[in-house]
Design goal:
The strands form three sheets. The chain has a seven-stranded mixed beta sheet, with helices on both faces. A four-stranded antiparallel beta sheet has the order 10-12-14-13. A three-stranded antiparallel beta sheet has the order 7-6-11, with no helix packed on it. It has 370 residues and is α/β, with parallel strands linked by helices. Helix 1 runs antiparallel to helix 8, helix 3 packs across helix 4 and helix 9 packs across helix 13. A hairpin with a 2-residue loop joins strand 6 and strand 7. The protein has 13 helices and 14 strands. Bound molecules: pyridoxal-5'-phosphate. Pyridoxal-5'-phosphate (PLP) binds next to helix 3 and helix 4.
Length: 370
């Protein structure tokens, strides 16, 4: 495949990053060592929670969070259909049923007004997804959760550094999960983190990720059915290094998003630019626009590719995947806002290395196609 002039995403790896990883490789301690401990401590401090538990990726983090919340067979968990599939799949892993509610057309997150209608005796939790770099309406969702005594888990995999009423994503739920896949705000290759203020949840997650070994127990003592969901030392070292400049990196993406906003503003009849909902600050995991009018989004993506510009359809609605339709009988029309956004939305290139000129060229190419 021809290399794109502007890929959709490009992880930023610096000399300092490489140095820190190289030090681990030379140390001989490649797993269960000081880098994971340091990464957890610094990550918890950044987000503002008491505890953090590093895991092998965001998906395994969600799995453990649901187990730790006691969600299982027969339970219902309310969540968003407009998400990366892992959020909903993790509910299936524990034998529970994902119950979707349609999204808000501004934030693209679960609409709180739809949530109450879906609560039944079986509802145990809200798995709240913060999509694209902005949080859900946590003010309203927490109110509902309190009223019905539901547990709240945040899928903050796309929203590191985002805030709602000045409070960071990851500090609202009993536990919250982040991902460090290469296209996220920071990366460890594969990697994830669970954060919580509850000691018991942190302990449970740490035991479960490590084959069910109790903390401080002998190596081959297994208390419960566990998993190997550990993060290795090289990844953790990269995490420590990447985290040290996360504020700068997010600030840069915000500037780039601002340039996109400015250059796209005269074309608001053709392209809908992303919007932060009231009380939210956006941390731009991706810069997602909607193609308005009759232009086919997928054709636009193809045309951009011919011009060396990478873009992606973001995101398909989960309820319309074949195995969800088959298993739960979902069909087109069930969640019209989610579906309409799914059909029109696409992510334009966004990564720290983009300049003002680059953004201008990308916008010019997009507008000429439209
Ligand atoms: C990336 C992502 C995940 C999963 O993270 P991985 O590290 O890829 O397993 C889960 N939910 C959302 C919303 C994501 O964007």
């Amino acid at each position: 495949m021809k290399k794109l002039l502007y890929p959709a995403a490009r992880p930023q790896v610096t000399k300092e990053d490489r140095k820190r990883v190289d030090k681990v490789l030379r140390s001989g301690v490649l797993s269960i060592g000081p880098e994971v401990v340091a990464f957890e401590k610094q990550f918890a401090r950044y987000v503002g929670t008491k505890y953090a538990c590093a895991v092998s990726n965001g998906t395994t983090g969600l799995h453990l969070s649901l187990i730790a919340a006691g969600i299982g067979e027969g339970d219902e968990v309310i969540t968003s259909p407009f998400s990366f599939i892992a959020s909903s799949n993790s509910i299936l892993y524990v034998g529970a049923k994902p119950i979707f509610v349609d999204i808000d057309p501004v934030s693209y997150n679960m609409d709180p007004r739809e949530v109450e209608k879906k609560i039944t005796k079986k509802t145990k939790a809200l798995l709240v997804v913060h999509i694209f770099g902005q949080t859900s309406n946590m003010t309203e969702l927490i109110k509902i959760a309190k009223k019905y005594k539901l547990r709240v888990i945040e899928d903050a995999c796309e929203s590191l550094g985002a805030t709602h009423r000045g409070k960071k994503a990851g500090t609202f739920g009993e536990s919250s999960v982040f991902s460090f896949y290469p296209n996220k705000q920071m990366t460890t290759g594969e990697g994830g983190m669970i954060v919580t203020n509850e000691r018991k949840i942190a302990t449970t997650c740490m035991e479960l990720r490590n084959q069910g070994r109790a903390l401080n127990s002998a190596w081959l003592e297994h208390k419960v059915l566990g998993y190997n969901y550990r993060l290795d030392e090289m990844s953790a070292a990269l995490g420590v290094s990447q985290l040290s400049r996360i504020e700068k990196s997010i600030a840069r993406n915000r500037r780039i998003a601002g340039w996109y906003d400015k250059h796209l503003a005269p074309y608001s009849h053709l392209v809908k630019t992303p919007e932060a909902a009231a009380n939210n600050s956006h941390s731009y995991f991706v810069y997602v626009v909607q193609i308005l009018g009759t232009r086919q989004r997928d054709r636009v993506i193809e045309e951009l590719k011919k011009r060396g510009i990478g873009s992606r359809p973001y995101l398909p609605s989960i309820h319309l995947f074949e195995f969800y339709r088959k298993r739960f009988g979902y069909k087109k029309g069930n969640f019209p806002i989610s579906e309409s956004v799914s059909e029109r939305s696409m992510a334009l290139p966004l990564y720290n290395g983009l300049t003002k000129k680059d953004v201008k060229r990308i916008v010019q190419a997009l507008v000429s196609i439209l």
